[in-house]
Amino acid sequence: MEITGSSAYYAGLGAIQAGQNRVDQAASQIANQSVERNATSQSSDYQAERLRAVDRSQQMDLATSTVQLALGKNEVELGVKVAKASDEMLGRFIDTYA
Q: Domain range for residue 15?
């Protein structure tokens, strides 16, 4: 039996890596938005009014980033399950203890 790079185990590892990348990007976007918001909080009234309109769009971006963060978490968890199931099945098909 030949084990190739296209097995389910490697698909699970790929999902883990993709999920981790998604989590990293979303966390970075959330952190950047928080820093920008704190830097602009000491503005004049006129600037504050203009920034409120921008804040509404940033809130949508914050919501999107939060959803991406949750998706990344789920992707990592599912990738682990796929890799684990593949590893268990391989152990059942090949008796390495005999």
A: 9-93
Contact status, residue 80 vs residue 1, Cβ threshold 8 Å: no
The answer to whether position 1 is within a domain reads no
Q: What is the pLDDT of residue 1?
A: 40
Q: Tell me the C-alpha distance between 87 and 78, whole Å.
A: 14
Q: Is the dihedral of CA 17, 19, 22, 28 positive or negative?
A: negative
In a domain, 2, yes or no: no
Average pLDDT, the chain: 77
Q: Is residue 3 in some structural domain?
A: no
Closest CA to 6 of 95, 88, 86, 94: 86
- Residue 85 CA, distance from chain mean position: 22
Is residue 45 domain-resident?
Answer: yes
* Predicted TM-score (pTM) above 0.85: no
Quickly state the pLDDT bin for 92 (edges 50, 70, 90). low
